[in-house]
Amino acid sequence: MTRAAELASSREGLLDHEAARPYRRSLGSDRSSSELDLDELPPPRSRGGWSPSPSRGKKSNKEKEKGYPGLPKAKRKGGLLRKTTCLLIMSILLGGLLGLIAMAIWVWRKAIPLDGQSPPWYPSPKGGTLAPWEESYKKAAAMVSKMSLPEKVNITTGTGWSQDLCVGNTAPANGVGFPPLCLQDGPLGIRLADHATAWPAGITVGATWNKDLIYKRGRALGLEHRLKGVNVLLGPSMGPLGRMPAGGRNWEGFGSDPVLQGIASAQTIKGIQDEGVMATAKHYVANEQEHFRQANEWLTPHAISSNIDDRALHEVYLWPFADSIRVGVASVMCSYNMVNNSYACGNSKLLNGILKDELGFQGFVQSDWLAQRSGVASALAGLDMTMPGDGLYWMDGDSLFGPHLTRSVLNGSLPVERLDDMATRVVAAWYQLGQDDKARWPNLPPEGDGRPNFSSWTNDKVGKIHPGSDDPTTAVVNQFIDVQGQGKDFHGRLAQQVAAEGTILVKNENNVLPLDPKGWTDQYQPHGTGKYKVGVFGEDAGSNPNGPNDCPDRACNVGTLASGWGSGAVEFPYLVPPIEALESTFDLGSVDITATLTNDLPKNWHSGQDLCLVFINSDAGEGYIQWNGITDRNDLYPQKGGDELVKKVATECLQTVVVVHAVGPVVLERWIDLPNVKAVILANLPGEESGNAIADVLFGRVDASGRLPYTVGKSMSEYGPGGQVMYKPNGLAPQQDFKEGLLIDYRHFDKQSITPRYEFGFGLSYTTFTFSNLALTTLKPKSPFPSPRPEGTILPPTYSTDIPDPSSALFPKIFWKLHKRIYPYIDSTKEIKTGSYPYPTGYNDQQVPSPAGGGEGGNPSLYEEHILVSIDLKNTGPRTGKQVVQVYVSFPEDVIDSSTGSKIEFPVRVLRGFEKVELAAGDTTRVEVRLTRRDLSYWSVGYQNWVIPDGDIVVAVGASSRDLPLSGTW
Fold it and tell me: Which of 115, 368, 553, 610 is catalytic?
């Protein structure tokens, strides 16, 4: 059974795994490696879950005799000789087979280093040491101190896939009044829910470069989740960052630059959490492709390992997570992949050393769904909550936490204080977001209606309350509450605005755009018939004939493309196709529209049109689903014959405008320079208001103000070795070396002097702008190192370290166990056997707190402003428009790090700030961007700190990464 089928069947609560029970050791006896020993994971099983039938026993002599019916014994010698020969051959073959099996086992064991290549960092730092969280931790400590052991386990363990109404659910701590939590995807809206907005995707949001608009979308996201009863929103996504342009989930994030990702993530989180919903920064970290992302999912026993150096990790992949923590994100989701051959959800350096110590994260770490690969080891490494609660396989009902976590505390293998911190982090986040406010978060029934008012598993009003179990109990699970807003507050308006501002005009010869609804312009006069003839071409201009939600989790490319697929996708309440908006915008009294909503034109097709609008696309998505063999894209070309469609139309039509809906960069080289292709728009993934948003830009109701959040190259190879998806495994644990370091996307193009088709940050407007009068004002003098890490003045909560009485964790005497539901209880006190537990190597080593730490997001000194960059921006064109003022930094050459004596290499330039400004025609304004110490520093591997290098730092300002008319030194 494929995972897609598992998901589908689980919605009816019918799934029953046929696979054998996987190998698992009790948490109380887990070994000392940073994750479950990789050579002892279960062997891979096919996606279909097939297992061979058990072998039959040996035949009796009588049965053998029956194989030679009617032959006297004397006649059987030749047969016996032949049989002996066969047996000899079979023995040789069997010996060879055993040799191959032995070799396979040896390769399995040697596939990756046993303990990984990530250094140990223990123990897990306790939360509650920073001022912004102080009061929440005081309240949380008071509550957790009253919890029983099973209650602490309840709130740190999911109840199991589809056991409750949300995609992730924890059980309550009833004795202290802590409710069950609902965790729900996601970054584009409320997954598997009704009457909720299908927002433009993250890549479209990043293309707006509009901080205020990003915040507003985040706030509306938070409001909708809160009104549906969701406690934890599983987004935004900032990993994958977009190292590989064909990455299947790049579209969930905001673009291929850490600063753009960081600012957009922070603004989104602020919006979500201002509505009292916990946001989740995901996927932590270096989760850059879908192929081999998860153990067993791609028929490899281990997930891919992203092997990355310390500097690239800090300056690229951690950057947006630091920004997210700085604004107080409540949760961080660790990813499926390994990092330096240690699973991200069991990597103590990543979780304890970097996230909780260096970056000062005060919330809770949750696993991606089934990303946890060990028990005690992952808890010691910093994992605070497992999701969805199941163990190594979907719906196996055998959690790596749950009762195993209870046993591990009772037998002394997991320190009580670690479980207390896990529980306190969850409760503190709940208090921090004000979810104890009964006005916003009512009590559970019967005292109130404080539960999710929708079900992820059925569209019916009445359904099972525990659909993944054997419980037949039903209730009203879908109340069909509309959370999209009304009137002027209808969220579709905001979604349309975001989609329009995230639309990028990259070519506009002879100002063919914007269009006139009447068709005719001063430059283009009517022909003999008088009517302006418009042809609309391409399947992407129309609708999926079976509806926009025809394919589970949007996993197909039919009709107009408004979203990628996977857990980040949502149900469309409606989807406006481009053809509908075009027909309602053109004046049909003077315009004749012909729509050919297919990518296949008739053989003898001739245009006869004055204007041709061609819509093409390119789709991708999450790895548990495939469409036409695609998850990560197989290439960067348009799909479904889009290139050929454009070429055919442009051969006949003198004015051809191409609109591309896509999950990321698309190679346009097969037709971009054709003389009749006059304009090209990259519209990304616009969400439910797709047609209206593209019409806004095509007809100039809004300025074309989107800017590229990625580089558009001329071929896949131009992105360099680091930009290539690994489509075939290079071992049982696929190894992906991030050898390019900092040089991803535009940084690679700049370093290799490759001229892209369209550079990062590029985009045209319907008006023109000039930049002038650059001034660099020093706000704080240059010094190499940040201030010393602040002395900690707030102590974390403390609790009794006494191990509870095992009888307190027994199942209640009268208790109805639901099939495959995860409980915190044990069956007998005899299960608890104490002994010496082999803690991980380095567990008792004294760790030195990072000098780069001391506050949320790192040392507060890193965020002190050092330079005020200011310029004059003037609208020199004919109409009101928006421009993105982009600030890039180039570091000195020949920098030597005094801690290592090594030369430090830098990208040619790196984005460090931006502001989007609207100006009326002829107006001028002063634009300011402030640069912090972190913006002006590099990560020193030797000092383990951020360092401002000696020498002149060049600050350049302009309209894109390669259009920087102003520069100065600091």
Answer: 368
